[in-house]
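[step 3/7] fold_predict: job queued, chain A
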Amino acid sequence: HLSLVFPGVHKVDLGEDRAADIQGVVSEGGDRLSVGRVKVRMHIEETLDAMQNALSISLQRALKTALDDSAEFLGTDGELTGWALSSKHPVQAAHMAALITWCS
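[step 4/7] structure written:
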């Protein structure tokens, strides 16, 4: 049911120790995004709010890193299509970085 609240999230990653803390999320395509540690609380609203904040911060960081990386790549041959497809960044961040760089 988590994908109804967060459409891009296919499942949550509880880490190796399977603790009650959410350490990351996984998209349907297999992209993993670390969210630090989100404590699962008694009240689900608190957990969902913490999850939303953690996802927002993680996506901002991923986009910043992808933008920095795309700027370096653009200096080599100027072709971002190959970079975006072979990127080590989450697909959403790589796609947005390519669009932002292309429009700049």
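[step 5/7] annotate
The two ends are 39 Å apart (CA to CA).
Residues 44-74 form the longest helix (31 residues).
exit 0
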